[in-house]
C-alpha cells in the first residue's frame, strides 16, 4: 500500500523586506545576500502571528470535511513553541474544528521536527489505512538585528495531510538517519533569538547530507541517476546548493545540469520567504512541484532533512497522479505577490515589538492582520487566538 503526502499547503504573513535594502542598511555588497546567501526577500512576521496561527492558516488551506472525518493524528513540529507544557497541536485542533478523538501533540528537534512527524504519521497510516494524519511544520526564524544570521531569518508554516493512496507523493518505506550531539545552533529556554555557530553549522549540514544520501543509495541499491531531483532543507537557499555540489562530481555532466535545473525550481519560494525552520524542506518540495516543468508521475525525488543539534535524514518519494496543482500554485504566488514591502526601519520596529515571552497580560491590535487566524495577546497568562471571517 502506498502512503504519503496527500495535500500540502503553505502560509506566510503579508510583509517582507528586500535583501538589497537589507544589504545596503548593513553595508554589505548586495550580491553577498543575493548570490552568496541566495535570498532575494525575507518574510517579516508581525506580533499577531505566532507558530500556532501560522500553522492554522497553512492547514486551513487544505483541510475539508473529508479530512476532518479522517484525521485522528495531529503532529505539530516546531522550535518556536509558545508554551512549555501545552502543545500547539491542541490549539490547532480547536481552531480548525478537528475531531476531539484525535491524538494531538508537539515534537521538537530544531528544523527536523516536521520530518519526524511525517515519518511517524506514515507508519501510523500504514497501520490504519482508512485514517489520515495532519503534520505541520511552523516556525519564526529569528537571529537578531545586525547579526550574521539576520539575512537567514524568515517564517511561515507548511501543513500536510498524510494518507494512503496519496495524491502528491508516496514516501519510501524507510530512510537513512544520522544524529550527533553537537552545538551548531540552539535557543536556550527564555531566549527569543537563536544562538548559532554559523560556519560550523554549514559544515555539519554538508557532512550529514553526505552521510545519509550515500547510506540510503547504498542500502537501496540506487544510483544518483535514479533521482529526478533532490530537495533540501533550505535555511538559506545557497545552503542547498552547497549540499548539492557535494555530490555533483559523482554524476555525469548531463545529470549535473538536470539536478541543478530542478534545484533552481525547488528554491523559488524559499528565496522570497527565508528560513521557516521545520517547514523549509517542505516549502522546497512545494516549490519543486509547482515550478519544475520537467517532472512526471512516477519520478523519484530525494529528500534531505536537517535539524541542528543535530539530526539528518534522507528518504525518497515517488510523485503521484495529482502532484501538480495549478490552483495551489496560483494561491501561493498571489500570497507572495500581495505582501507589503517594509523599509528596514519598519522591519526593525516590528522585530523589536515582540512582547516579552514572560509578559502575562497584554492585548495586540489585530486591525492590520487580515489572516484567518490571529493571535490577540495574553489574558491572565492565557494566549488568545481569534478566527476572522
Ligand atoms: P557570513 O559569515 O556573514 O557570510 O555568514 P560569509 O562570509 O560566509 O559569506 C556567505 C557566502 O557569500 C560565501 O559563499 C561567500 O563567498 C559569499 P560560500 O563560501 O558559503 O559558498 N559572498 C559573496 N558572493 C557573491 N558576491 C559577493 C559575496 N560576498 C560574499 N559580493 C552564515 C553566513 C550562513 C554562516 C550566517 O548567515 C549564519 O550564521 N546563518 C545562520 C545559520 C545557518 O543558516 N546555518 C545553515 C546550516 S544549519 C541549518 O540548516 C539548521 C537551521 O535551519 C536551524 C535548525 O535546524 O533549527 C539553521
Please describe what this structure looks like.
By secondary structure, the protein is α+β, with helices and mostly antiparallel strands. It has one domain (3-387): Thiolase/Chalcone synthase (Peroxisomal Thiolase, Chain A, domain 1). 36% of the residues lie in helices and 25% in strands. It has helices at residues 19-25, 30-37, 51-60, 65-70, 88-95, 113-127, 198-219, 237-247, 253-266, 268-273, 280-291, 326-337, 344-352; strands at residues 3-11, 15-18, 41-43, 71-77, 103-107, 132-141, 154-164, 169-171, 176-179, 185-186, 195-196, 229-232, 300-307, 311-319, 340-341, 362-363, 373-379, 382-387. Strand 4 (71-77), helix 5 and strand 5 (103-107) form a beta-alpha-beta unit. The mean pLDDT is 97. The structure holds 3-hydroxy-3-methylglutaryl-coenzyme A (HMG). 3-hydroxy-3-methylglutaryl-coenzyme A binds at residues 29, 31-32, 35-37, 79, 110-111, 148-149, 151-152, 184-185, 196, 198-199, 201-202, 205, 233, 235-236, 239, 242, 275, 277, 306-308. It holds the Pfam family HMG_CoA_synt_C. InterPro entries: HMG_CoA_synt_C_dom, HMG_CoA_synth_N, HMG_CoA_synthase_prok, Thiolase-like.
